[in-house]
Amino acid sequence: MATADEVEHLDVVIVGAGLSGVGAAYRLRTECPGKSLALLEARDAMGGTWDLFRYPGVRSDSDMFTLGYPFRPWREAKAIADGPSILSYIRRTAAEHGIDALIRYRTKVVSADWSSAEARWTLVLAVRDERGNVEQRRLTCDFLYSCAGYYDYERGHDPVFPGVESFAGTVVHPQFWPEELDYAGKRVVVIGSGATAVTLVPSMAEDAARVTMLQRSPTWISPVPGRDRVADRVRAVLPAGLAHRVVRAKNIAFTAGFYQFCRRWPKAARRLLTRLSRRALRDARAVREHFTPSYDPWDQRLCAVPDADLYRAIRKGRAEVVTDHVDSFVPEGIRLRSGRVLEADVVVTATGLRLLAFGGIAPRVDGRRVEWPEQFVWRGAMVTGVPNFAVCIGYTNASWTLRADLTSRLVCKVLNLMERRGLAAVVPEPDRELVARPLLDLASGYVRRSIDEFPRQGDRGPWRVRQNYPLDAVLTLRGDLARGLSPTPRSSVRRA
């Protein structure tokens, strides 16, 4: 980075050095090799989600053949991988392709201002040294690409429970797991029923005296194999790269097909998931009471449990599920609305995440703040009203990386288009009025709480943010990209 008195300029800046950011850097280095590039990471390490989340049992909720990069085969045995394995995979990928040298740690984007006159971004950065001292610096770039996701990594959703101050035990949130927490032989209550909760319960049950998952209402849960036996056989006979492509295609087809099955025939999907739960839990009454939601499958994200570990923990008596509401905390635990008291030494509030638009970047264009809810997303990547800017938004019904990689390849195509045509800037513009729809089409609480703060998707064509990778793989990168983009020629730009 330049000295404090200088302003460095780069062709492209990527915000975030997690799974998406490292993948984006690979695409830019290979498809736009002449562009200068840096990744800005606010934390001390790469990995994003997989470095931040340290709670017991943290793992992927998608298979690694599709969550992993298409350009780097996943070679581990487990298809549903643990957090440390995924973090190691990201780090090795970055090191092998020289991406680790492009990452600037402890560097947070404080503001981003676009100048149409100069056709470039000016970023104000808060750069923190190893002692915690913070210095502000400026950096300019031609294109800004946010790969920070849409979660708030500094704050989780943490509702206020009455009487929590009277609780004699320990309360923790999974997003900020204390390394020194010892729950061996203790009574644990996990509040929640989403992906984090169903991961925590069987993992903590291995050491705790007993773990109780307290949920307000059931969530659809599907047992899945921890290992992909078909993948094992394919990898045993084919070269690694070819095997990866074959298994990846198989899993993409299965995931897309199962999602369409759930959406088109919800009653049949309910019967199937209920039957799978009964087979795994071996208790029809418990399935009916605790694992049969009122909503249809994929109205909210489906929770996968590898090798039915949650159900096995319940069968062994190491865990239980209670469906009720918290009335208040009491010194010995949690009093439920029914009057029952769940005694606890440790309470884990797996109450969900908070959404935050694109890492909290609030850009200004020619001095005017961009109001995200007034904008539309084009091809799942670029945003109206914001020139030379793209966001990485993964799928909700499939592996995040599937769309993330498509988006990064689209960004490269746009940059190469600009280079060929001598353009200084492009911004998406619809040719006619769009009907606004929420960016994410999920009824989950964490989505409904904050989705109004995000850009919208439209009702047609490239303005739809589809949850359909096979269709996106065909349409996103094809067609005349210039038709949806308003250009600014380099000849009309004057820079100091």
Automatic annotation (TrEMBL):
Domain of life per record = Bacteria
Transmembrane ranges, per UniProt, are none
- UniProt entry tagged with the keyword Flavoprotein: yes
Gene3D superfamilies according to UniProt: FAD/NAD(P)-binding domain (3.50.50.60)
| Source organism phylogeny | Bacteria, Bacillati, Actinomycetota, Actinomycetes, Pseudonocardiales
| Cofactor needs | FAD
Sorted alphabetically, the keyword list is: FAD, Flavoprotein, Monooxygenase, Oxidoreductase
InterPro entries with a match to the protein in the record: FAD-binding_MO, FAD/NAD-bd_sf, Flavin_mOase-like
PANTHER family on file? MONOOXYGENASE, PUTATIVE (AFU_ORTHOLOGUE AFUA_8G02570)-RELATED (PTHR43872:SF1)
Protein name, entry field: NAD(P)/FAD-dependent oxidoreductase
Name the species this protein comes from. Saccharopolyspora taberi
Similarity remark: Belongs to the FAD-binding monooxygenase family.
